[in-house]
Amino acid sequence: MSTPQTTDYTQVESLKIGPEDPRYRAVINKQFNKRYAATPDYVRLVNSTEQIVAAVEEAVNEGRPLAVTSGGHCLEGFVSDPDMRVIIDVSPMKRVYYDAEMGAIAVEAGATVGETFRALFEAWGVVIPLGEYPQIGMGGHVVGGAFGFLCRQLGLAADYLYAVEVVMVDEDERASSVVATRETSDPNRDLWWAHTGGGAGNFGIVTRYWFRSPDASGNDPAALLPRAPES
C-alpha cells in the first residue's frame, strides 16, 4: 500500500499525454474493466483544482467530449467510452490533510481507498467506512455512497461528507470550481447533497472531499471521525 501524498505539489505543471507518448497506453489501460477501450486524443494528468479548470475549458473550447478518471475502477464504459476525446486523470492529486479553515479532514480525489485508510489511521487514529479494495480511487467512490466492511457499524462514507469541491461548466462554457457544504445556510447545499450518492461525474469533476462526523464538535482532527477499530 503506497504512502499518501501530504506535501503541496500544486505548482507542478499538468501533463498532456498523446498517443505518440509511450506513457499513453499505460494511462488509458489502467481501467479495471477491459471490455471497454478508450482512444482519447490525449490524457491530461492534473495536480490541482486550477489545472482541472484549465483542462476542462481547453476541452470544451475545442469541442472535445471529456471524461475523468481517478483509480480506474469504473465498471461501466463511462470513462473508456470511445466517443470521449479527452480523459482528465486526477490520480496525481493524493493529499490527505486537516483543513483548519473548514474544520474537517480533506481528501483529494486522486487518493485511493487504501491510501486514505492509512493516512487517516496513521495521522489521527480515525476511519471512515470505505470499500474493501485498496486501489479504488476516492474520486468516484464516495459519490456513489461508498460502502464496505464497516458499513453495518458506521454507515456509508457519504454520511461523513461535510463538503465537496466540484469543477463545473456554466451556460457560457466557462469552467469554475464550487465548494458545497452540508450547512443549511449554504446556497450550494443541494450540490453537496447530490454528491452523497448521486453517482460519479453526473454533476462535474470532484477535486476533493472534506469529512467530518455530523455530531462532531470542536476542531481536534482526532475527534472529527469515528475511531479506528482495534485489532
Secondary-structure blueprint of this entry?
Layout lengths: L14 E3 L6 H5 L13 E4 L3 H13 L4 E4 L16 E4 L6 E4 L4 E5 L4 H12 L13 H4 L9 H4 L6 E9 L5 E7 L7 H6 L10 E7 L20
Parallel strand pairs: 2-4, 3-4
Antiparallel strand pairs: 1-2, 5-6, 6-9, 7-8, 7-9
Q: Which labels suit this protein?
A:
single chain; 231 residues; alpha+beta; Uridine Diphospho-n-acetylenolpyruvylglucosamine Reductase, domain 2; Uridine Diphospho-n-acetylenolpyruvylglucosamine Reductase, domain 3; 2 domains; 5-stranded antiparallel beta sheet; 6 helices; globular
Helices and strands, in order, run as EHEHEEEEHHHEEHE
Q: Give the terminus-to-terminus CA distance.
A: 18 Å
Shape designation: globular
Mean of residue pLDDT values = 89
With strands numbered from the N-terminus, the spatial order across the biggest sheet is 5-6-9-7-8
- Supply the number of helical segments: 6
Any idea of the CATH class of the largest domain?
Alpha Beta
Beta-sheet strand percentage?
15-25%
Q: Tell how many strands the DSSP assignment holds.
A: 9
The percent range for helix content is 10-25%
Rounded radius of gyration (Å): 17 Å
The CATH topology of the largest domain turns out to be Uridine Diphospho-n-acetylenolpyruvylglucosamine Reductase, domain 3
Which CATH-level-2 architecture of the largest domain?
A: 2-Layer Sandwich
Q: Structural class given helices, strands, pairing?
A: alpha+beta
Q: What does the main sheet amount to?
A: 5 strands, antiparallel
Low-confidence stretches: none
Return the domain count.
2
